Amino acid sequence: MKKKSASLFLILTSINLNAFATAGVFFDEPKNNAVVTKTFHVKMGVEGRMVCPAGKETADKTCGHHHILIDQKPITAGGIIPSDVNHIHFGKSQTETDITLTPGKHTLTLQFADFAHRSYGESLSKTIEVTVK
Ligand SMILES: [Cu+2]
Fold it and tell me: How far is the CA of 54 from the centre of ligand 1 (A)?
């Protein structure tokens, strides 16, 4: 009997660790180092977390929304994401958008944050580089 509960505990623990380990955000489109036109389509993805609208208070830390930071670093966990031309919020749960940039190299950082736009930190961010023709 005792052995049985120990193995059940191990199974539950590994399930929890797996859920934690797979959480992350990614760009479906464009790919890293892609060459893009001045206006290009972006598809945002998240694994192990849920996309929820901003402004609706929830204690659920698996809930959040996407942000695209242009030529910026990820925001430290807990930091509020500014709202300006280089910090775009997708508070209506959007997962796709079009972005227009000037020619040359740019970085795009996808940053996940909670209902109050507080960053979930670098572990829930992803940075890629694109070259605009
Ligand atoms: Cu936001």
Answer: 6
Using the mean position of ligand 1's atoms as its centre, give its distance from the Cα of residue 70 in Å: 14
Q: How far is the CA of 14 from the centre of ligand 1 (A)?
A: 32
What's the whole-model pTM score?
0.84
Is residue 116 within 8 A of residue 132, CB to CB? The reply is no
Q: Phi then psi for 49, rounded to 5 degrees?
A: -140, 165
130: enclosing H helix or E strand: strand 125-132
For residue 96, the CA-to-ligand 1 centroid distance in Å is: 15
Q: Give the domains, in start order, of the chain with CATH numbers.
A: 24-132 (2.60.40.10)
Lookup result for tokens 């694994």: 47
d(CA 80, CA 116): 8
Q: What is the pLDDT of residue 119?
A: 98
pLDDT along the chain (133 residues), means of 10: 47 47 92 98 97 94 97 98 98 98 98 98 98 98
